[in-house]
Amino acid sequence: MRPLAYVLPILLIACNGNGEAVAPGNAAAAAAGGKLFQVQELASFNEPWAMTFLPDGSALVTEKPGRLLHWKEGGAATPVAGTPSVDYGGQLGLGDVVLHPNFGRNRMVYLSWSEPGPNDTRGPVVGRARLVTEGGPPRIEGLQVIWRADKTDGRYHHSHRIAFAPDGKLFITSGDRMKFTPAQDLNSSLGKVIRLNDDGTVPRDNPYAARGGTAATVWTLGHRNLLGIAFDGQGRLWEHEMGPRGGDELNLVERGKNYGWPTVSNGDNYDGSAIPDHPTRPEFQAPKITWNPVISPAGMMIYSGRMFPQWRGSAFIGGLSGKALVRVALNGTAAREAERWDMGNRIREVEQGPDGAVYLLEDRKGGRLLRLTPAH
């Protein structure tokens, strides 16, 4: 696609201290002081899901049906050979892509995807491989699966987002698959945040390491569908997850804590039956932000660039049903929604580029890669 630059008057939606949108009339008034962004269309993809930048400024992009692409600005995106076959359909397929912290030395790339199992079951996996971009078409070599979750039926809530901690430990989100109660079972991988060494082995200091088995891999439990995970500049881990009927959450992820799903939620079941709210069960960790109405959060990055200095330390989250880009102001362990911009399409991924610009992927066939820079 030929790059197209335009100035977009993005609607600023005012929020109260709990991150809830205020009345439309007030939002319109707030929009008058909103900042105009220059938005540049750079490429389009078939159901793009995730992206990560390489040191040379090019990027790897995953498409949910199963393709990994190497994208360079001004050129066509090239398929990367050697990627795994995936179980594609519903919410499942090829997922996240991240670089090893020492990528410049070892060229290791980590991928997540949905893998078929026996008797019409499936589950998320994470693998790693060496990326080769010299001497021919791009390819990955030596793909090795380093983590497998339990297999279940259904095509929901695999989550499988990946992030490396500052100390090099690997964190993986594992959704509840719409199975509910396994999120509270330490012997199940469903509804958990997983912590591993970079080779898939279990760190000795994990909170439940002494129990062995699946429990040894668990960092936190009681989660639903975790589609964004990121570390802030002080090494704190944040994740967001979709609530049921209402109650999307942003959580500060802390070692060994239980976040309550499905026992508590600030939303209700899809059949309309009530779920006790978080304040009724103080033994569970309460979210830092709850969204009602929901935004269906997807993708997350915490900004550290120079292009928007006023936003350093803020989290940026895509909205699927919300069709929005959401900025969350982080202050230590506190968080509040600060700004929300209507993007007109479902936003699946948010990344910071090497240039400090904000990059977005739309969630659809023909989903565009967009670059946001300050308007001149």
Question: Helical region count?
Answer: 2
- Structural class based on helices, strands and sheet pairing: mainly beta
- Strand numbers in spatial order across the main sheet: 1-2-25-24-23
CATH fold-level assignment:
Neuraminidase
Q: How helix-rich are the residues, as a percent range?
A: under 10%
Order of helices and strands: EHEEEEEEHEEEEEEEEEEEEEEEEEE
Form type = globular
Based on the structure given, which CATH architecture is correct?
Answer: 6 Propeller
List keywords for this structure.
globular; 376 residues; 3% helix; Neuraminidase; 25 strands; 43% strand; mainly beta
What does this entry show, briefly?
The chain contains two helices and 25 strands. The chain has 376 residues and is mainly β. The strands form six sheets. The chain has a five-stranded antiparallel sheet, with no helix packed on it. Strands 3-4-5-6 form a four-stranded antiparallel sheet, with no helix packed on it. It has a four-stranded antiparallel sheet with strand order 7-8-9-10, with no helix packed on it.
Write up this protein.
The protein has 376 residues and is mainly beta. It has one domain (4-374): Neuraminidase (6 Propeller). 3% of the residues lie in helices and 43% in strands. The chain contains 2 helices and 25 strands. The chain has helices spanning 24-31, 103-106, and strands at 4-8, 37-46, 48-53, 59-63, 68-71, 78-79, 94-99, 108-117, 121-132, 139-148, 159-164, 170-174, 192-196, 218-221, 225-231, 237-242, 248-253, 289-291, 297-302, 315-319, 324-331, 334-342, 347-352, 358-362, 365-374. A 5-stranded antiparallel β-sheet has the order 1-2-25-24-23, with no helix packed on it. A hairpin with a 5-residue loop joins β3 and β4 (59-63). The longest helix is centred in the first third of the chain and has 8 residues, at 24-31. The protein is globular, with a radius of gyration of 20 Å. The model is unreliable at 1-33 (pLDDT under 50).
